[in-house]
Amino acid sequence: MALSTHPWPLPGDPAWDDDHMKEECGIVGIWGHADAAALAALGLHALQHRGQEASGIVSLNGGGRFHAHKGRGLVGDNFGSAEVIRSLPGQAAVGHNRYATTGESTMRNVQPLYAEFEFGGLAVAHNGNLTNAMALKRALIRRGCLFQSTTDSEVFIHLIAISLYSTVLDRLIDALKQVQGAYSLITLYEGALIGARDPLGVRPLVLGRLGPPGSNAWVMASETCALDIVGAEFVRDVEPGEVVIADSSGVRSVRPFGAHHGRFCIFEYVYFARPDSIVEGTPVYDTRKRIGAELARESHVAADVVVPVPDSGVPSAMGYAAEAGIPFELGIIRNHYVGRTFIEPTDQIRHLGVKLKHSANRAVIEGRRVVLVDDSIVRGTTSKKIVEMVRQAGAAEVHMRISCPPTTHSCFYGIDTPEREKLLAANHSVAEMAAIIGADSLAFVSIDGLYRALNRPARDPAAPAFCDACLTGDYAIPLTDLAGHPERERALLALNGA
Ligand code: SF4
Fold first, then answer.
1. Residue 327 covered by a domain
2. Are residues 382 and 409 in contact, defined by beta-carbon separation less than 8 angstroms?
3. Does residue 77 have a pLDDT over 80?
């Protein structure tokens, strides 16, 4: 996505890699297991959908020695050999899958980030975006900090390094109190593996236990699917604002921000999380089916067949078909050997990717009135091509149903979205969008319908249960780096629809 035209950085700002400002990532940490690096690699493999550009693992063995291996490409490309795993000894490891959007991808930005400081080595893996990172970076540079990468995540390392507190935990908490934004964070130093979520818990993080009850081997990861692959027992979600410490005496936690009303990313349920993950106590697969059922109740249409846009549209299409009493069929076949359209880094490749990825199953579609179910419309380019493909396969009618309300705003909390003028729903009515993508009709699940599928009666505007800023423009975390500058303020106003 063309993020280089986002409103930052501006002239005079420190160098900043804008692709990194807009990433979605997967993180995993292992503590107290002889196969820590191998388990971290497996966890990253399960979290591959959260980042496919690069991956890295930093391990820690006795005597405070850290070992690192990072590389561009998929986890299997980087950690598929026993030799690489053997080069990462130790009983603790932290891993990261990176997803970059546009622009140059540099190895120095591949996480986990690692640095030496007063207490020895420190590795940091971060999922999310900091919304005051530019301001903090300017202040840190004025204080003499030398940045080695262009990621917002490096701010954590410098804040920890210069903090005056006397323990690593207190320094980390000191750092967390200075940053704004969305983060799930796993840090590793000689004494502990520490996981943390931002006070609103926008990005996910779970805790699991390896081995029998009473063992002191732990896993922290973005999603439960990473626990499943390593055979760990799910213990619980790390709570919003919670800091969880795994060390030689077990697991404990502190809550430096007190009790908070969380605002978990609602889009994790719609699209990002793997369907076999359990997110905040709710199975993603079941939720997607319930969203599909809501969609069918809200926007029923006479049709012969319900067809998902695979793969992420499948559960909601199943829910739609069951509720509407219309047969569910696999009318579009996906080639699994190419990446997800949403994560391709350039418009040209994305354009090509649609044809590479999907083909119509004529036997299911020809002569039928088709309900196509997908999870979202961002620019509309993919939807247009899918509708076209289904028509070419002989569909009598094509009705598009979307298991998410219109995406009208950009995300600044760790998910890549285009700037607002490129979001189809920000600039067009639903009827106009239907005409643009060439569908006979188009409907989105309502925001209240989405909340109902998440077991809430409706969205409470006074205290929404989730972050839904990309659907409502209600940004719960201040966008500090955007404010205070005329150009940024204009961008901010535009983003908020003013
Ligand atoms: Fe998730 Fe949207 Fe909030 Fe971003 S703005 S964190 S994508 S709900």
1. yes
2. no
3. yes
